[in-house]
Specification:
about 400 residues, alpha/beta, TIM Barrel, two-stranded antiparallel ribbon, 13 helices, about 40% helix, about 15% strand, globular, disordered N terminus, signal, Glycoside hydrolase family 99-like domain-containing protein, WbsX
Length: about 400
């Protein structure tokens, strides 16, 4: 074999390796999981005490200018005031989401007054959509108290009275867990990590208080894990909603969760964490790019302080004024700047190759918190296109 021939073979081999690396980089899959708030439905009788017109929280969205004439917030959904509990509507949403790179929905899930609340979007819409297998899903138990914030007829008085408590007893906790395992974990498109169903808990202090204390909560969560195994799964991926220290700009939640310590998290048995909304851990009354700088610092703190995996979170924005007429407001959260946040999350995932490539986003449809991916009259499909550019087009 001549030296020249050997040289040619070497160049060909290097070319193949290089092409393989490029192909790998271009075809890497990311799990882009958008929280879905299930209040945009028709004819759910349990929602009528808050929104008597029967269209869920669309009533709040569409009445802003009537309640606050000339107010700066005047967003309109391009898809209209859709009923997300309609399986044909949800099928359209699944198509649009997956086409733009969103392949997981995290359903906000509620339990009040001894029964499930706001479940129709999931049960009647998503799980009956003809294309549901295109999209994975998992649950975040939103176990916060309910105060007057949903009801715009009352929240103007700024009263903090509790309508329903988020805490539950051990008996109720077991009822919730058994129902969740049978009704949702066993769905073929339920999102799992290493075969373990992912279950996210929003407010840990509420959980502990309801169950009677720290030791009782540890025992209850271990029971939940054991029940999940008995149902045939290798275990439970118990996901913590991470918060900042006494920082909550949302004005909604019944309690404020302090950032936990590593020993606390380990004792409770959480196996991963993410955030739900920027408003829970950074000052959101700021420019979006400044917020991203502070978010990155928080991710670094999580890496330094906790042993469990952290999955990066990006929020579209924050402005709760459609409900109350006043709010901290994220500034300059354009689709272009949102894309910068997505690239930051992508870089974090790429730097943690031992974790699954999961990124959480707030949110698919939080219209009254002005943190949504759905197209509107201001940016059109801009936020969805940003996800597609970063995660599907590689730009």
């Amino acid at each position: 074999m001549t030296i020249q021939f050997k040289h040619t073979i070497l160049l060909m081999a290097l070319s193949v390796l290089s092409f393989g690396n490029i192909a790998t980089a271009q075809t890497k899959k990311y799990d882009i999981a958008a929280f879905l708030y299930p209040a945009y439905v028709n004819d759910d009788p349990r929602l009528r005490p808050f929104w008597p017109k029967g269209i869920g929280e669309w009533e709040t969205v569409t009445s802003v200018q009537d309640r606050f004439p000339g107010f700066y917030w005047d967003r309109k959904p391009i898809w209209g005031t859709i009923n997300e509990a309609d399986p044909s509507v949800m099928a359209m949403e699944i198509n649009e989401a997956t086409k733009h790179g969103v392949n997981v929905f995290i359903f906000d899930w509620y339990w009040y007054d001894g029964r499930a609340f706001m479940e129709t979007t999931l049960n009647n819409g998503f799980l009956k959509a003809e294309n549901k297998d295109k999209m994975k899903f998992y649950l975040m138990w939103a176990n916060h108290d309910v105060v007057n914030t949903w009801d715009v007829r009352l929240n103007k008085y700024n009263e903090d009275n509790v309508i329903w408590q988020g805490r539950v007893s051990r008996d109720e906790f077991e009822k919730i867990c058994k129902r969740t395992i049978e009704k949702y974990f066993k769905q073929p498109n339920y999102y799992k990590i290493n075969g373990k169903p992912v279950y996210m808990i929003y407010d840990v202090p509420q959980l502990i208080n309801g169950l009677g204390g720290m030791e009782q909560a540890v025992a209850a969560l271990q029971w939940f894990k054991d029940e999940t195994k008995r149902a045939g799964f290798p275990g439970l991926e118990l996901q913590l909603t991470m918060w900042g220290i006494n920082l909550n700009y949302s004005g909604f939640d019944g309690s404020k969760t302090e950032r936990p310590q590593n020993a606390f998290v380990k004792k409770l048995g959480f196996t991963s964490s993410t955030h739900y909304q920027f408003a829970h851990f950074v000052n959101v009354n700021d420019d979006y790019l400044n917020i991203l700088d502070n978010v990155k610092k928080e991710w670094d703190r999580n890496d330094a302080q906790f042993e469990i995996p952290y999955y990066p979170h990006i929020s579209v924005g924050w402005d709760n004024s459609p409900r109350t007429g006043r709010s901290a407001v994220v500034k300059n959260n354009t689709p272009e700047n949102f894309a910068k946040g997505l690239r930051m999350a992508k870089a974090y995932v790429d730097a943690h190759p031992k974790q699954v490539p999961l990124i959480t986003i707030n949110s698919w449809n939080e219209w009254t918190e002005t943190s949504y991916l759905q197209p509107d009259n201001k940016y059109g499909y801009g936020y969805l296109q940003a996800i597609k550019q970063v995660f599907l087009d590689g730009k």
